[in-house]
């Protein structure tokens, strides 16, 4: 039989790569813990959604930059439902979650640790010493291809609004864990390019149980390049023949465990006392009270310095919390200018938005691709059962910026007098009528690859007696638009504001 190959080209006005993804947020029993809270992810917003391709790299444990923990650890009740969220645009959940072409399995791993903040997730012992490194990981869940629906786990996560939900085993040994969601895209695996997407949530399991895994594995090391699970051809092979990467789902047994002993009291990563505003793992605390002009300006300076830290530490999920804090600093600045030296305004008011509660949707079964629709849906009642150790966590607005990068930081966090700076719309959970600070108007606009792309040209009919194979190639065009304020007029405005910020008499 003759075989021919027909190549079809499609022009797409889109970025040069299909939309990738990043694990940004997790929910406990349907309650959001806040964008980036207790979550390790790649710090560079421009590369946060990039896949991992070196299977021997330490980045396989908790992603690039994942060997360094964040300051927060989220408490989780025994047997709770954990839901991990993916986004192709880290600061905007309204965009697509992952390009549909990125088909493949997913899994969730746990590692019992002495400290969820300090543990690197992997060891630094060199591979050539032939010592197991990064040991202690065990698979809690995995899910691959479902022949009955012709769907991969990635398809179901996309259809479930980007949420991958698993239920923690009841009676798991209490204490600190790293929880590692994983998605493997196989669209280029047949070309030796498997693409892993992972990250780590830092959690504390509130449990008096003693269940531990019978065996653990090393990450990296649990999967190697060239293995069938990472080189599978999803286009020319029966997908039902796919075997999952890594170990089998762990068997849990009663025992003391081979890692740290059970911890019964969380003493690290708690929400700081006096926290009034959050942005991921940053917290703002109240400024000193004042009753004279010097104290007013000093408290304002304290507020702006905290804002500097907020913007400097903002993860790829954005800086919505920083924008809230900036409004607070502006209100102090306005009070000083009005010679109202009794403050700060709204002293002690918690500015943190109420935690979002969602219906987590489908809770998938391990392997085989089945979906358990009998699992209870999350209701609003779950909000009353949040496992937050202190106040509730914020959730970034769905109306986030259109750039995958974090919101821009004001060039020097200089306060703006209300008489010169235009106000932005007031947030419902902030002081009504408060003037907002102005931020530099600089945006980058791009379009996800799968958005508004034309359909491929129809393949010509196959001649009789031939076996035809249709191949598609994509040619892409990238368009980036910048909108920037007039630098001359903006510079004059900020120059005048600098005097207002530091002056004490007029």
Automatic annotation (TrEMBL):
It comes from the Eukaryota. Its EC number is 1.14.99.56. Residues 1-19 form the signal peptide. Residues 374-422 have a biased composition (Low complexity). Residues 20-242 form the Auxiliary Activity family 9 catalytic domain. The keyword Magnesium does not apply. GO terms for cellular component: extracellular region. GO terms for biological process: cellulose catabolic process. PANTHER family: ENDO-BETA-1,4-GLUCANASE D, PUTATIVE (AFU_ORTHOLOGUE AFUA_1G12560)-RELATED. Has a modular structure: an endo-beta-1,4-glucanase catalytic module at the N-terminus, a linker rich in serines and threonines, and a C-terminal carbohydrate-binding module (CBM). Lytic polysaccharide monooxygenase (LMPO) that depolymerizes crystalline and amorphous polysaccharides via the oxidation of scissile alpha- or beta-(1-4)-glycosidic bonds, yielding C1 and/or C4 oxidation products. Catalysis by LPMOs requires the reduction of the active-site copper from Cu(II) to Cu(I) by a reducing agent and H(2)O(2) or O(2) as a cosubstrate. This is AA9 family lytic polysaccharide monooxygenase. The lineage of its organism: Eukaryota, Fungi, Dikarya, Ascomycota, Pezizomycotina.
């Amino acid at each position: 039989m003759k075989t021919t190959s027909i190549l079809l080209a499609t022009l797409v006005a889109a970025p040069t790569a299909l939309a990738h993804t990043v694990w940004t947020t997790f929910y406990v029993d349907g309650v959001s813990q806040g964008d980036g809270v207790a979550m390790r992810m790649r710090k560079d917003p421009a590369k946060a959604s990039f896949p991992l391709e070196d299977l021997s790299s330490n980045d396989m444990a908790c992603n690039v930059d994942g060997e360094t923990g964040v300051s927060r650890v989220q408490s989780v009740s025994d047997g709770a439902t954990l839901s991990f969220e993916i986004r192709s645009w880290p600061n905007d959940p309204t965009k697509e979650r992952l390009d549909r072409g990125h088909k493949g399995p997913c899994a969730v791993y746990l590692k019992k640790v002495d400290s969820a903040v300090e543990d690197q997730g992997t060891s630094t012992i060199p591979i050539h010493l032939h010592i197991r490194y990064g040991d202690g990981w065990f698979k809690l869940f995995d899910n691959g291809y479902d022949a009955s629906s012709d769907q991969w786990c990635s398809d179901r996560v996309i259809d479930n609004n980007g949420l991958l939900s698993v239920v923690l085993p009841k009676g798991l040994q209490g204490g600190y864990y790293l929880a590692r969601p994983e998605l493997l895209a196989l669209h280029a695996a047949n070309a030796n390019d498997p693409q892993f997407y992972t990250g780590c949530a830092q959690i504390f399991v509130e449990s008096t149980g003693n269940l531990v895994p019978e065996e653990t594995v090393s990450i990296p090391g649990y999967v190697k390049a060239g293995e069938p699970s990472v080189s599978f051809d999803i286009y020319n092979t029966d997908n039902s023949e796919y075997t999952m990467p890594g170990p089998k789902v762990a068997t849990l047994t009663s025992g003391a465990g081979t890692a740290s002993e059970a911890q019964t009291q969380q003493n690290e990563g708690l929400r700081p006392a006096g926290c009034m505003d959050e942005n991921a793992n940053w917290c703002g605390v109240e400024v000193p009270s004042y009753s004279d002009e010097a104290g007013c300006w000093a408290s304002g300076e304290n507020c702006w310095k905290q804002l500097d830290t907020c913007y400097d530490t903002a993860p790829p999920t954005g800086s919505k919390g920083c924008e809230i804090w900036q409004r607070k600093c502006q209100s102090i600045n306005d009070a000083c200018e009005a010679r109202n030296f009794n403050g700060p305004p709204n002293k002690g008011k918690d500015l943190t938005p109420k935690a979002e509660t969602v219906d987590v949707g489908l809770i998938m079964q391990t392997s085989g691709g089945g979906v358990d629709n009998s699992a209870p849906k999350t209701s609003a009642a779950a909000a009353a059962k949040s496992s937050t150790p202190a106040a509730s966590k914020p959730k970034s607005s769905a109306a986030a910026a259109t750039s995958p990068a974090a919101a821009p930081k004001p060039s020097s966090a200089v306060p703006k007098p209300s008489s010169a700076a235009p106000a932005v719309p007031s947030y419902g959970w902030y002081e009504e009528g408060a003037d907002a600070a102005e931020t530099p108007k600089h945006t980058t606009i791009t379009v996800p690859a799968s958005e508004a792309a034309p359909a491929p040209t129809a393949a010509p009919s196959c001649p009789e007696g031939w076996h035809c194979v249709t191949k598609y190639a994509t040619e892409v065009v990238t368009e980036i638009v910048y909108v920037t304020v007039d630098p001359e007029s903006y510079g004059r405005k900020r120059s005048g504001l600098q005097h207002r910020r530091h002056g004490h008499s007029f």
